[in-house]
């Protein structure tokens, strides 16, 4: 009998099955990107046999891959064995300005995925599984693998594009004269801020490897003459001279003690009236208290939290967590504001405490 209870049980079972198949879906995505499927399909409709030939693949296995991608909503099969890209799939073409190909390559790479096999161990011990699996920490591993490091930097840039478009108009940058982007990578976020605020001057601070792509990013946005590059280690110091210190998706990579160190170095050089602006997700104190945010996020922030546990030793934080690490660094949080158009990010603003 088709009762409400039966339908709910079926829905619950389907949820578990979808979650169990999640790893297979991500590897399907990885294979498609590595084979160049979305570029080969382009803007039109093509037979699977043609895509297979151009990819150097067998026809029937390619058809099966393309049908799986259609089942995931990334392609459409309008007639047997002929496919085209959906709007979501178009984000995986390498020529798209909004491309997420590097993001997919990075987050499906064994460097990210393999340590997840030891998630249960990390939960038991609190240890960083990546270090045990690879014999070194994540960023040292990147340093030894230039191609992976390039993918990581490109992925971070792609992930920052949405925030870079929204942030300049969501915060009053006009109050400041100099902004230092601490751990700002290739400068995607800072370039967006500077382009929207012509009176503002910037400093981009990261490791030499992290800054490798920055000159092209700054040139593309037309802000090269208003942004200095400062290579360094934020665990040792950050450049002085700015009245705003910006960090986007930096602190969650690190433990509380390490976050306090980074924030403390910002506090050391913060002038009177200066501010620190942290752009990161903010977890609610109890899961489910912000149903709309969780629906939009799809639980990804909590998976990101586990990824930090497994691979980096960092964490996603609640407001109380941010207040505590800021307090320990001599800072006081004065506002926490959702960045609505770039969910799940928030603006955490702090001043000298």
UniProtKB/TrEMBL annotation:
Residues 116-331 form the O-methyltransferase C-terminal domain. GO terms for biological process: methylation. The keyword Cytoplasm does not apply. One of its GO terms (molecular function) is methyltransferase activity. Pfam families: Dimerisation, Methyltransf_2. Residues 18-91 form the O-methyltransferase dimerisation domain. InterPro entries: COMT-like (IPR016461), COMT_C (IPR001077), COMT_dimerisation (IPR012967), SAM-dependent_MTases_sf (IPR029063), WH-like_DNA-bd_sf (IPR036388), WH_DNA-bd_sf (IPR036390). Keywords: Methyltransferase, S-adenosyl-L-methionine, Transferase. Gene3D superfamilies: 1.10.287.1350, Vaccinia Virus protein VP39, Winged helix-like DNA-binding domain superfamily/Winged helix DNA-binding domain. The keyword Isomerase does not apply. SUPFAM superfamilies: S-adenosyl-L-methionine-dependent methyltransferases (SSF53335), Winged helix' DNA-binding domain (SSF46785). This is Methyltransferase. It comes from Streptomyces amritsarensis.
């Amino acid at each position: 009998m088709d009762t409400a209870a039966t339908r709910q049980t079926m829905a619950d079972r389907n949820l578990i099955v979808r979650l169990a198949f999640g790893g297979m879906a991500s590897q399907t995505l990885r294979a498609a990107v590595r084979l160049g499927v979305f570029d080969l399909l382009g803007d039109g409709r093509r037979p699977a046999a043609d895509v297979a030939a151009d990819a150097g693949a067998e026809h029937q296995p390619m058809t099966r891959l393309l049908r799986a991608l259609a089942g995931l909503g990334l392609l459409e099969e309008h007639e047997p064995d002929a496919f085209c890209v959906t709007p979501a799939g178009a984000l995986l073409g390498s020529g798209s300005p909004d491309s997420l190909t590097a993001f997919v390559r990075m987050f499906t790479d064994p460097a990210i995925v393999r340590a997840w096999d030891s998630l249960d161990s990390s939960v038991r011990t609190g240890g960083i599984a990546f270090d045990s699996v690879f014999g070194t920490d994540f960023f040292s591993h990147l340093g030894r693998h230039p191609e992976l490091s390039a993918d990581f930097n490109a992925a971070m840039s792609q992930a920052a594009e949405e925030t870079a478009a929204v942030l300049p108009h969501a915060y009053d940058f006009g109050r400041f004269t100099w902004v230092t982007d601490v751990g700002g990578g290739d400068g995607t976020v800072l370039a967006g801020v500077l382009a929207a605020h012509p009176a503002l001057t910037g400093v981009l601070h990261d490791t030499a490897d992290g800054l490798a792509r920055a000159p092209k990013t700054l040139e593309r946005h037309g802000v090269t003459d208003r942004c200095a590059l400062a290579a360094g280690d934020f665990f040792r110091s950050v450049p002085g001279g700015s009245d705003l210190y910006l960090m986007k998706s930096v602190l969650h990579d690190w433990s509380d003690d390490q976050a306090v160190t980074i924030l403390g170095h910002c506090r050391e050089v913060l002038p009177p009236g200066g501010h620190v602006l942290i752009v990161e997700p903010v977890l609610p104190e109890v899961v489910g208290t912000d149903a709309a945010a969780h629906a939009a996020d799809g639980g990804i922030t909590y998976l990101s939290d586990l990824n930090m546990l497994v691979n980096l030793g960092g964490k996603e934080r609640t407001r109380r967590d941010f207040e505590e690490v800021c307090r320990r660094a001599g800072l006081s949080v004065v506002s926490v504001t959702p960045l609505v158009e770039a969910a799940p990010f928030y603006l955490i603003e702090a001043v000298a405490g």
